[in-house]
Write a structure and sequence with these properties.
Elements: H1 14-35, H2 41-62, H3 74-97, H4 103-109, H5 112-124, H6 131-152, H7 159-185, H8 191-206, H9 219-246, H10 249-256, H11 259-272, H12 285-303, H13 312-321
Helix pairs in contact: 1-4, 1-9, 1-10, 1-11, 2-3, 2-8, 2-9, 3-7, 3-8, 4-11, 5-7, 6-12, 7-13, 9-13, 10-12
């Protein structure tokens, strides 16, 4: 897919599509918080993944692109199962963290996904760290330290926050396993086929842990939140894919890395409207400054990505899509 790399000199509608993806990912965090006290995390994750699988499967079938068993080798099947397990764990852990931290706090903590992926690229894929990426990494680490310090210091240790932060970190590592495996398999299957197989596999992995209890207590607002959560994956994916068609990886990823700021703004609005389960953390200037530095560092690291070899950019873009949102 070399045409993705330098499709156009101007960004065109790319920034708008990237901003839409960031908004949808931020919205996902808000609606998840609305559901966390009614349905179990495996149940919500299973429903979201199943709906994504059905809708994406219908799209692929209409275009005659459903993968055939013969197209999937024995090694790929094992890798796809590992990716499905990683994605399932990411979805469950991310939602479970919302029982301990607010959506705004979770979104800042989950910005480490990009840094973990960048680290794997340096360690295992022979990529080099640009000066802008190095500056972004240092800024991110300082920001995360300032963000965590007030809550995890010995004098003011917040056990609930610590547990939530741990769940977000575990979710990040689960996503990393999914993303790296997805990159390997994508060399033989296209992006949508891999996404369909992984989402379907993840839904099957979570099915035995799901429960019908709680659906009768959702109410109109709960059902709306669940519907929005189910659609967010495909909408965000489609928006990001369109951004990649008209823009560069660094530009699109930089915009989407700003989604934690959008989560904070949406949390303020949702809390003001009295949305159940959504609140804004009562934090000081040090925590807010750390959060802004962490987001800025993530954006700098994304902006610092050089032009990858032919075919690599599409793979990198796909990895960003599967984030815990």
């Amino acid at each position: 897919m070399p045409g993705l790399i330098h499709r156009r000199a101007s960004a065109g509608p790319g920034p708008a599509w990237a901003l839409l993806a960031a908004v949808v990912w931020a919205l996902t965090m808000i609606v998840m918080a609305r559901l966390v006290d009614t349905l179990t995390p495996p149940t919500v994750a299973c429903v979201r993944l199943a709906v994504t699988t059905l809708l994406l499967g219908a799209w692929l079938s209409r275009r005659g692109q459903l993968p055939k068993p013969a197209d999937i080798g024995r090694c790929d099947r094992g890798l796809l199962l590992l990716a499905a397990a990683g994605l399932a764990a990411n979805y469950v852990l991310s939602m479970q963290s919302l029982s301990h931290v607010t959506p705004a706090e979770s979104s800042v903590l989950s910005s480490m996904n990009g840094m973990l992926l960048m680290g794997c690229g340096l360690l295992f894929l022979g990529e080099r760290l640009s000066r802008l990426q190095a500056a972004g990494l240092v800024t991110f680490l300082v920001g995360q330290g300032l963000f965590l310090l007030p809550r995890l210091s010995a004098s003011a240790f917040d056990r609930r926050f610590a547990l939530g932060a741990l769940l977000v970190m575990l979710a990040a590592f689960a996503w990393l396993a999914y993303a790296l495996v997805q990159r390997v398999v994508q060399r033989r299957l296209n992006t949508l086929q891999v996404l369909w197989l992984v989402c379907g596999g993840a839904a099957l992995v979570l099915l035995p842990f799901s429960s019908l209890q709680g659906f009768d207590r959702l109410g109109a607002g709960g059902w709306l939140a669940l519907a929005v959560a189910c659609l967010c994956t495909l909408v965000a994916y489609g928006a990001f894919a369109q951004a990649m068609r008209h823009w560069t990886v660094s530009g699109a990823t930089t915009v989407t890395s700003l989604s934690p700021v959008l989560v904070w703004l949406m949390s303020l609005g949702a809390a003001a409207m009295g949305v159940i389960g959504v609140s804004v953390p009562d934090v000081g200037a040090l925590t807010v400054g750390g959060a802004l530095l962490a987001v800025a560092g993530s954006a700098l690291a994304a902006l610092g990505r050089g032009t990858p070899p032919s075919g690599q950019e599409a793979s990198t873009a796909t990895l960003t899509i599967g984030r815990s949102r």
